[in-house]
Amino acid sequence: MTVSGLATPYGFQDFPHYTEGRSASVNKIVIHHMATTDADSVPGIWKNREASAHYGITQDGSIRAYVDENNTAWHAGQWGVNSSSIGIEHANTTGAPDWGIAQATIDSSAKLVADIAQRYGFGQVVPYKNLFPHSEFYGTACPGQLKAKLQEIADKANDIMAGGNGNIATQDNGGSAPAPKVDNRSASIKEFQDKWKNRWALRGTFRIRTCQMQYGMYQALTDDLNVEPNSWFYNGIPTKLLEDLSDPQGRAFEDGAIVRFKDDVNFGTIDAYDTNTNSIGIQFTGYPDMIWFDADKFLAHP
Ligand SMILES: [Zn+2]
């Protein structure tokens, strides 16, 4: 178990929406705002909402731990990013549209960021290299005005790591320019993006490992297409999208059944990519969550 010494456990893992363990090593921090001034309502809201984060910082700068750093919190909206990051929530002092953040919250954030960066060997904290706003990975307004404070948090964190107290003057430049991006896409993701212009079609059959009622609907997992390790939340395919070729009725979905996507849903557009796990995300119409597939397996499948 790993929890920052700066944090106090609060409602610690008293909610189901995180994943035990990690499938990648930690190399980044993702900054969020709570979108509420009621810091105490977090993490209780995650008993129902399919979300979580490792830490939260209140208006007075108290740091609360919600999830063990060795576990994967569900905060970034991308499995690969969740696997490789620590998520920090920040309480707001005002609501929409300003979403104010107290200076005490920012100052504590810098301390926590410095502590995490030091423990995981990030080196210098640099926005868009190892410190990201949630909006970098998901279509969201989160983290509101904190997006323009990333450089301040990084500057203070770097000062603390260098032995300072983080109490340095910072000028708000409205957010720093993103670091130049290297092309770390896999061959499969390049092909989906460059050759197929984000389009996909998968008409061949595949074998399901198992089928269960999960999140209110029957879903199937398949090793033929899913990323490992796969989970019901990220990789479950609703059986309503599938036809069971092993069953004359087309809907028994026994373990090991041979299935295929129904004709009206076996093609479309890829909605998201995750280069860390070499995955593609597809959001099927009428379903709440993105389904993630292994890019190599998906591309190679007829
Ligand atoms: Zn967020």
UniProtKB/TrEMBL annotation:
Keywords: Cell wall biogenesis/degradation, Hydrolase. Residues 17-144 form the N-acetylmuramoyl-L-alanine amidase domain. It comes from the Bacteria. SMART domains: Ami_2. SUPFAM superfamilies: N-acetylmuramoyl-L-alanine amidase-like. It catalyses: Hydrolyzes the link between N-acetylmuramoyl residues and L-amino acid residues in certain cell-wall glycopeptides. It holds the Pfam family Amidase_2. Transmembrane segments: none annotated. Its EC number is 3.5.1.28. This is N-acetylmuramoyl-L-alanine amidase. It comes from Fructobacillus tropaeoli.
